[in-house]
Amino acid sequence: MEETRPLKLYFIHSLAAGHMIPLCDIATLFVSRGHHVTIISTPSNALTLRKSIPSHPFLLFHTFPFPSEEVGLPDGIENISSVTDADQLVKVMNATTMLQTPIQNFVEENPPDCIVADFLFPWVHDLANNLNIPRLAFNGFSLFTVCALHSSSHSSNSLLSPTLPHSITLNASPPKELAEFLNKYLEMELGSYGLIVNNFAELDGEEYIRYYEKTTGHKAWHLGPASLIPRTPEEKAERGMKSVVSMHECVSWLDSKAENSVVYICFGSLCHFPDKQLYEIACGIEASGHGFIWVVPEKKGKEESKEEEKWMPEGFEERNAEKGMVIRGWAPQLVILNHRAVGAFLSHCGWNSTVEAVSGGVPMITWPVHGEQFYNEKLISEVRGIGVEVGVAEWNSIGFGERQMLVCRDSIERGVRRIMDGGDEAQEVRRRAQEFGKKAREAVGEGGSSHENLTALIHDLTRLRDAKLLS
Ligand code: UDP
Fold first, then answer.
1. Does the UniProt entry include the keyword Transferase (predicted)?
2. Is the CB of residue 400 less than 8 Å from the CB of residue 272?
3. Can you list the domains of the chain with their CATH numbers?
4. DSSP output for 363-384
5. How far is the C-alpha of 250 from the C-alpha of 283, rounded, in Å?
6. Which residues contact 87 (CB under 8 A, 6 or more apart)?
7. Which residues contact 439 (CB under 8 A, 6 or more apart)?
8. How far apart are the C-alpha atoms of 369 and 377, rounded to whole Å?
């Protein structure tokens, strides 16, 4: 059937960088096929997002004022990645709840053909049902992890269900509240028309796609990696937030380094390590003797001068002036991961970071911290063999929770050396990582699996819309 009249889609992102970045990248995929997309956002988030995705006449933002004053937040803090403490985290959550009614009213008055919404907004279910339009859910996880979560429903065991295609034991047991929280939301998303996944079918694997469909009766659409959408180097560098270093500075530093000689170290947008842990990282990376780019989140809320940085071993930056670069704040991660000098990624295994590393063919050194990252670690290390584990045995809470166990400098050094020193294991892991990188790029190209999935999804949505018009 010829798809003539464009679809009208609304994308509703949640207020966290790790969710809104990929969802809005995915929105542009529909635009690139001639469909009309409105991203529902707030002023500060829209400003950031606009800088990192290609502009197009069919891509609009509809913003709702963020209730900063009502919840008691300073202007401009409109997502959980910009908060400075646990109190602000709760305030962003409260603001999110307050946005529900205005968004709902807007959608009811101007209904689209389909809503794509973060799974943290289960109320979109009733909204879409009342309007008789399909809702697609997005949770930002790999399907492997979704399967693992469903299979271990309400369990806080580290040993995952034996019904999964692989026998897997996590390195730490998930906190009971987390398992319950995620399962509640994952159950609710099963009421949607389908799940959009920021991954490509080859990395999750046919076995997990079949497992998901068989055990839930629900459909998953692999449309990623979202990070591979075409964009200018400037858009790449501004993805997520304004970077504290210029892309030029980063690239020219990396240009001066040998191929695969630099470890990139970054723990996403929500990890706040205590000084003692940062100190161990500094010692571990220095002892490994390898080059590095290390992203250390700004100490938010405090006017901390460089002299007061207790986490930095004395003379660390001077000794490593040639070898290392410390970025204090937001880094242009996509630019870094795609540079030939980067040979490994020491990562918290957030799903975006994972799939971005895979797209760049970069092997990972896994250090999960919270959320669903311990599941991602197993996909990376045991299931696909594209990374090695640092050996983290404690699950932390998101944001500003207390940490009991430190990952010591020896484990960090060992993890880095396992990939960066070369050797048979490292070569094999790198070969597989590069192979998956190639598959990722093929998936989003003409005729690739994600490209075809998007065509099929658009076809389905058009059919639903047209059938509704005829009824
Ligand atoms: N990111 C970045 N620069 C940084 C830190 C993070 O560009 O300094 C981006 C990264 O590329 C990824 C996202 O922020 O797209 C983080 O998402 P992820 O799922 O990896 O982790 P989260 O922040 O949700 O824990």
1. yes
2. yes
3. 6-227+442-468 (3.40.50.2000), 231-297+309-438 (3.40.50.2000)
4. -EEE---STTHHHHHHIIIIIS
5. 23
6. none
7. 200, 202, 203
8. 10
> What is the number of other CB atoms lying within 10 angstroms of the CB of residue 31?
21
Through-space distance between the first and last CA atoms of the chain, rounded to whole angstroms: 18
Compute the distance from residue 328 Cα to the ligand 1 centre, in Å: 14
CB atoms within 10 A of CB 289: 12
Rounded mean pLDDT, 389-402? 79
Return the H-helix or E-strand segment holding 62. Answer: strand 59-63
In this prediction, residue 1 carries a pLDDT of: 46
Residue 18 CB less than 6 A away from ligand 1: yes
Q: What is the pLDDT of residues 415-463, one digit of tens each?
A: 999 999 999 999 999 999 999 999 999 999 999 999 999 999 999 999 9
Substitution site in 247, 250, 333 for ligand 1 pocket (most atoms within 8 Å of beta carbon): 333
Look at 173 and 154; give whichever has higher pLDDT: 173
| pLDDT in the model for residue 403 | 61
Q: Which of 49, 225, 30 is nearest to 113 (CA)?
A: 30
Look up tokens 């500094």; give the residue. Answer: 282
The b/e string for 1-20 (b: 16+ C-beta within 10 A; e otherwise) is: eebeebbbbbbbbbbbbbbb
Say which amino acid occupies 305: S
The reply to whether ligand 1 has any atom less than 6 angstroms from the CB of 352 is yes
Rounded to 10°, the helix 449-470/17-32 angle is 70
What's the gap in Å between 116 CA and the centre of ligand 1? 21
For residue 72, the SS3 value is coil
CB atoms within 10 A of CB 236: 18
Q: Could you identify the residue written with the tokens 């009249």?
A: 5
d(CA 223, CA 452): 9
Catalytic residues: 19, 118
Q: Rounded mean pLDDT of 366-379?
A: 96
307 pLDDT exceeds 80?
Answer: no
Beta-carbon neighbour count of residue 399 at 10 Å? 17
Please state whether beta strands 324-328 and 262-266 pair in parallel, antiparallel, or not at all (unpaired): unpaired
